[in-house]
Write a structure and sequence with these properties.
The complex is a heterodimer.
Chain A lengths: L7 H8 L1 H11 L4 H67 L6 H20 L2 H29 L3 H89 L14 H70 L8 H31 L8 E4 H19 L2 E6 L6 E4 L1 H17 L5 E9 L2 E8 L21 H7 L5 H11 L4 E6 L3 E9 L9
Parallel strand pairs in A: 2-4
Antiparallel strand pairs in A: 1-3, 4-5, 5-7, 6-7
Helix pairs in contact in A: 2-6, 3-4, 3-6, 4-5, 5-6, 6-7, 7-8, 8-12, 9-10, 10-12
Chain B lengths: L4 E5 L3 H12 L4 E5 L2 H10 L4 E5 L7 H10 L8 E5 L6 H8 L3 E4 L4 H11 L4
Parallel strand pairs in B: 1-2, 1-3, 3-4, 4-5
Helix pairs in contact in B: 2-3
């Protein structure tokens, strides 16, 4: 999901006044929690108002329905009255017809029923109608008096008089009462119809009103939800976009949001962070530029040093070439027979010339290593050949000093290994040469053995040994234990340092075990399959 | 058989003297040049049978001179022994790339040099 994508509907709504409301809500100085609480509270109140309104409407409806019930009841009573009146008239007619006053007894029961219904009706009708009720009651009382008179006449056999009374007085009275009752019935009926219509329209209105209110409440709730959510989403979008800018490396910008809540603070912090990053970035760029310039100067210096070394090498070797060349030609008798007494000084010149050459080579090697320009010439070679050639080079020195010089090649030594044979030979030569140099009695033993994935070369001597507190420093340049050693044994103190560097360039390690006045053993390992490691 | 000519290009008088004296008692004929340009001129004018070329020379380096000699038809096949002062690693490779037949590092042994010469150009 892409955080910064706004769906089209939301985008549209944000352009309406709702969008302004969103911005307003965002800009309210209050916490997100309070804003959310207010939004939910607003929606809850809306629902509550909606409920209250519905209850109110329903109560109105039930009240109307109650009124309708009452109207119905009144109509019922009115109709009973009407019916009772008709019965009275009927019973009177019957009594006259059968000439029996006993039939009139039933009229009394009807009268009771009539009065009962009338009493109910009176208690239920409005004040304005009570006059009509009283008229009806007065009429009925009069009718009852007439009924009693008719009954007496019938009992006395005066049927004609009774019939006359009935015809002239009772019947018109009943008809007038009936007219009044009919009026009441009609009125109640009309009222009921009115009520029913009103109830029906109220029902419809309520439906519309409640429906609309519900729709409005839902819309308001949705709008509220939209406003509060977008008031919170917009700063997140802004922050997201801003972080994308930072991720793309465009630093130092600022993110502005309307929010004056936690998101507002967050935006301010993001802006501050971006500016800090921009500052750091600028610092780093400046440092990189400075380093670049420095590097260029150093490279220039290094190049100058290399050129100087190349020139020095040439300048030193050219006269040395002449010295060694003339000496060799003298020795070889090119200028004629050499007197016997010249042989030794000539050999001394040659030995010292070669020694000088080694020193020059050591200084050059170390300079190249330190300039990072020393490279190993890797090839396959025989580890036992290395040992053999070192022994061959140093045998005469050992013999001169009267030292034994042993070589022990382990059976497990691999025949062909991979590395720079010239440099490995130089390492072993340095160690064995040193051992012979610092040993006056006894001798030196070179050992070569397999040690895991490496060949381990060890050189053991019975020489002066190294004090324990100097063991750590023996591989440092120009380090000899003291200047008397330099005077007595010679050397530049570069051999061990160069050896260590060549061993490390092969990926091997070098270490020493020694006891003062008892001798030392130097070990170094060269991986059977050496890879070039850093020259520095 | 005719006498074999060797051109030695070297700016140092003592070193030239060594080779001069080394070859004095042989049948080789020695010609000398002091810098790359004159060596080039000399070799093109009268191609020798072998050239001993020092690397660090005035005016034109021994490697450049070797390259140019290899590019010329008259001198393309002449054996050239490049002599360097062993300063930086890869010198042997550079000599080979320039077209050297053989490579010697200074200081060289006159004995070895003579052996190398004899190997490349038999004395007679």
């Amino acid at each position: 999901m892409r955080l910064d994508r706004t769906d089209p509907l939301a985008a549209f709504l944000l352009r309406t006044p709702l969008g302004a409301l969103v911005r307003w809500v965002a800009g309210v100085r209050s916490s997100v929690q309070r804003k959310l609480l207010a939004a939910f509270l607003g929606i809850a109140l809306l629902v509550l108002a909606m409920g209250a309104f519905s209850v109110y409407t329903m109560r109105g409806m039930s009240r109307q329905s109650e009124l309708l019930d009452q109207a119905h009841q009144r109509l019922d009573w009115s109709q009973q009255i009407h019916h009772s009146l008709a019965m009275q008239m009927h019973l009177t007619a019957m009594a006259l017809l059968v000439r029996d006053e006993k039939a009139l007894g039933s009229i009394l029961r009807e009268n009771n029923r009539f009065n009962e219904a009338l009493a109910h009706l009176e208690s239920a009708v409005e004040e304005s109608e009570k006059l009509v009720i009283q008229k009806i009651r007065a009429g009925q009382e009069e009718a009852m008096t007439l009924v009693a008179d008719i009954a007496n006449l019938v009992r006395d056999g005066k049927i004609d008089a009774a019939t006359r009374l009935h015809g002239t007085r009772e019947d018109p009275l009943y008809r007038s009462i009936d007219a009044l009752v009919a009026e009441v019935v009609q009125k109640e009926n009309a009222r009921m119809v009115g009520l029913r219509d009103s109830l029906r329209s109220t029902n419809q209105r309520s439906l519309v009103v409640i429906g609309s209110a519900a729709a409005v409440a839902v819309l308001l709730a949705l709008a509220g939800g939209f406003v509060i959510s977008w008031a919170l989403i917009q700063p997140v979008h802004a922050a997201h976009g801003f972080l994308n800018e930072i991720a793309a490396g465009r630093l130092g910008g600022s993110v502005t949001v309307q929010n004056r809540d936690e998101f507002g603070e967050l935006a301010a912090q993001l802006t501050a962070t971006s500016r800090e990053l921009a500052r750091l970035d600028e610092d780093q760029r400046r440092a990189a530029r400075e380093l670049g310039a420095l590097n260029a100067r150093l490279e220039q210096a290094s190049k100058a040093k290399s050129e100087f070394l190349a020139n020095m090498s040439h300048e030193l070797r050219t006269p040395l070439n002449a010295i060694l060349g003339f000496t060799e030609m003298l020795t070889d008798g090119l200028y004629g027979a050499v007197p016997a007494e010249f042989a030794e000084p000539l050999a001394d010149i040659q030995t010292n010339g070669k020694h000088l050459l080694r020193l020059i080579n050591d200084v050059l090697d170390l300079s190249k290593i330190e300039a990072g320009r020393m490279e190993l010439a890797l090839s396959e070679y025989s580890a036992s050949d290395v040992v053999t050639s070192v022994r061959a080079s140093l045998r005469s020195l050992a013999e001169e000093k009267g030292l034994h010089f042993r070589v022990v090649v382990d059976d497990g030594l691999p025949e062909i290994v991979y590395g720079d044979p010239k440099r490995v030979t130089q390492c072993l030569f340095n160690l064995a040469g040193n051992a012979l140099k610092f040993t006056k009695q006894g001798g030196v033993t070179i050992r070569a053995a397999r040690d895991g994935d490496s060949v381990r070369y060890s050189v053991t001597d019975t020489g002066i040994g190294i004090p324990e507190d100097h063991l750590g420093a023996v591989f440092t340049e120009f380090r000899q234990i003291d200047s008397t050693i330099t005077r007595e044994f010679g050397g530049t103190g570069l051999g061990l340092s160069i050896t260590k560097k060549f061993v490390e360039m092969h990926g091997g390690r070098i270490w020493v075990e020694s006891r003062l006045n008892q001798g030392s053993t130097f070990h170094f390992t060269i991986p059977i399959k050496a890879r070039v490691t850093s020259t520095v | 058989m005719s006498q074999k000519t060797i051109l030695y290009v070297e700016d140092n008088e003592f070193n030239r003297k060594i080779v001069r004296q080394l070859l004095a008692k042989t049948k080789y004929k020695l010609r000398e040049a002091h810098d790359g340009e004159s060596a080039l001129r000399d070799a093109l004018e009268d191609p020798p049978d072998l050239i001993l070329m020092d690397v660090q020379l005035p005016k034109m380096s021994g490697l450049d001179a070797t390259r140019q000699l290899r590019a010329e038809k008259r001198t393309a096949a002449i054996p050239i022994v490049v002599i360097t002062s062993y300063a930086l690693s890869g010198d042997a490779q550079k000599a080979k790339d320039a077209g050297a037949t053989a490579y010697l590092a200074k200081p060289y042994s006159p004995r070895d040099l003579l052996a190398k010469i004899r190997e490349l150009v038999p004395e007679a």
